[in-house]
Amino acid sequence: MTKKNAFYAQSGGVTSVINASACGVIETCRKNSDRIGTVYAGRNGIIGALCEELIDTARESDADISALKNTPSGAFGSCRFKLKSLEENRREYERLIEVFKAHDIGYFFYNGGGDSADTCYKVSQLSETMGFPVQAIHIPKTVDNDLPITDNCPGFGSVAKYIAVSALEASFDVSSMAKTSTKVFILEVMGRHAGWIAAAGGLIEDYDIPVLVLFPEVDFDHDKFIAAVQRKVETNGYCTIVVSEGARNADGTFLAEQGTRDAFGHAQLGGVAPVVANMVKDALGYKYHWAVADYLQRAARHIASASDLEQAYALGQAGVEMALAGKNAIMPTVERVSSNPYEWRIGSAELADVANVEKPMPSDFITDDGFGITARCKEYLYPLIQGEAYPEYDENGMPRYVVLKNELIDKKLEDFEL
Amino acid sequence: MTKKNAFYAQSGGVTSVINASACGVIETCRKNSDRIGTVYAGRNGIIGALCEELIDTARESDADISALKNTPSGAFGSCRFKLKSLEENRREYERLIEVFKAHDIGYFFYNGGGDSADTCYKVSQLSETMGFPVQAIHIPKTVDNDLPITDNCPGFGSVAKYIAVSALEASFDVSSMAKTSTKVFILEVMGRHAGWIAAAGGLIEDYDIPVLVLFPEVDFDHDKFIAAVQRKVETNGYCTIVVSEGARNADGTFLAEQGTRDAFGHAQLGGVAPVVANMVKDALGYKYHWAVADYLQRAARHIASASDLEQAYALGQAGVEMALAGKNAIMPTVERVSSNPYEWRIGSAELADVANVEKPMPSDFITDDGFGITARCKEYLYPLIQGEAYPEYDENGMPRYVVLKNELIDKKLEDFEL
């Protein structure tokens, strides 16, 4: 087997553990330096490959690479840039192969969600027909948890833990204040298409918190919702509402699109939390508070799930091992062996089966009333939030997150226009 | 010295460590059971005293009382209920003394901010003139950090840590995405009158994050702000903005009051973060994200500051010790001995000097341009966020927060109408 270089890139929205996958890839490549040469990372994701902006990870110390395990975000930069289809823009795929050829790259590790799985698959196919075979391995990552075949996706477990813990804490707060002040607390969470993250908020029901969850999967029914809030407040004194940013009306419009205008008549881009808050106030008059977690949730490395972190690293490692075993057009997966105690192992999926397939939340994960999660869903979720993988902190009381040198290697090709 | 019972109550907005002060009070009373009888806690704060709803803390196990150190919120319930002045409503103060007399309560520990210090002071004065002397001790608590004399207030350090850590993490996220997506991230934090909490967001400048802080203390200047955002983005590729909910225009109106209307023309109660986000979009066209931390910040026991937790407990303990030493109308304080290394000791303040005095942020804590914090401010803040006081977690991966039994004792008096 000839020694080839490797290329690694991060794609799409970043997570609190995607750098752990990067660490798994790079450390495993370093351990196999007899067979894999330099690992180049794409500066700002796949754009770095197209523009030949390749970061030489060999110039990063072992300590800094190891510190990636404890650092949220995408250390090499990510991007929202979807390659068009082969038919529409063959030029981009051919450019990728050209760059790989120029830098003797035989391994392509692409760390992302559904779109990047598709890109990864196309690269593997095209490289063969172009006579410069590249082994293309997809490392799964997405807080949306919507990749098929794998039991779950790295990044999701830590967001789920953050949301479950934060919703529990805020509910304790509201419970203290409810007698004379706030009775309803609304937490807006990510998930435009699927309610996986919102579902994690539903776990606090097990901790005696009166909670209602609004899923994108369930048509919003105003009167039913208001009645449910009233019932919770009358029974428990207060109510917590976890609402997915993608919660929508029966006609498919998002709740967040309420035609809100500022003083000048401009459309106001707000979140769904204040919309729900105003709904509750108008119908029931309860005092409320609302929060929008936004990036805080997916960046919250300080409360990352230990099982999530472990899997993020293991999938990066497994991707390299699969490449060394001659595999191509493949994605390492998490296979659940048992939920209690939690046991899992590494499996694999053909990219042909992954690309362009979205895994929805199973319908038996949502309770019949549409406002909660079932025992099956809880059995699925708890293992993913188990354990606390704390980062180190410095003497100031701030987490030690690493910033890499990210030095680019010299270009060998003409410039490429995106 | 005759043995008397004690009364403890929580007041106003709760924090992630106010229960640690409760724990300090109750454990120290238990250790001095030869001189202090039962500790009764007010159900929902001072309302519990007025309505004679007294929780018998003796029925709680040592383990549960100890677990209060790790539990956010107000375990006995708090309230937003300000007693009127003695002249306006002497009836309420007399009722308090009547309840204390009926239950042989000689110690009044009131855990709160400025308003409760004032109430505490009046109780001590009135009780003497009414011939039933009660030693009234105020235990400081407020995330607003605005009590005078004490170097800082329990509750603030943990919010400051949460905001500094969260702003750092989200900034790493934005930095990864900025090339093709989000360039500006806006985090709204608490602080209607003072910028203490927003100032904590300014600490991330030391971690090479391009950050702008909007304080209530600085008149908002739209053009200057937009120019500053543009400069940061052009220099660094992105910018983080930490905005206090109390940020205001030169005419004193809150930025959050933008006359926003929903589709039906109703005034929309939104936060300041979306207002700032729309401002940036309109002026510069940058893609943005925004978050509103709201209750999450003050409930975030999972990332509480160790120095904050230690002080919250120590001030509860000191309050009881001061009572045993015969003190009255007093508040234990934190006295800073040195910042580096951080050393502090317990001091005390006369309630006459605390009541109705608000401590503003010193003007030399804000940089001349109005968008950042000075070295003096950082020297003040870092010690308060030092150390991570993690709670325990259960096998599900959720924090072990205690819920007390909170059993009421039998009433002896007529009902009282609030």
List the helices and strands and how they pair.
2 copies of one chain form a homodimer.
Chain A: E1 4-10, H1 18-31, E2 36-42, H2 46-50, E3 54-56, H3 62-67, H4 90-102, E4 105-112, H5 114-129, E5 135-140, H6 156-177, E6 184-189, H7 196-201, E7 211-214, H8 222-236, E8 239-244, H9 272-284, E9 288-292, H10 295-299, H11 306-324, E10 330-339, E11 342-350, H12 351-354, H13 375-381
Helix pairs in contact in A: 1-11, 4-5
Radius of gyration of chain A, in Å, reads 23 Å
Q: Any low-confidence stretches of chain A, pLDDT <50, length ≥5?
A: none
Helical fraction of chain A equals 25-40%
Q: Shape of chain A, please?
A: elongated
Secondary-structure-based class of chain A equals: alpha/beta
| Number of structurally distinct domains of chain A | 2
Determine the most extensive contact between two protein chains: A-B, 87 and 86 residues
- The percentage of residues in β strands of chain A lies in 15-25%
CATH fold call of the largest domain in chain A? Rossmann fold
Oligomer: homodimer
Number of strands of chain A: 11
Please give the CATH architecture of the largest domain in chain A: 3-Layer(aba) Sandwich
Strand order of the largest sheet of chain A: 3-2-1-4-5
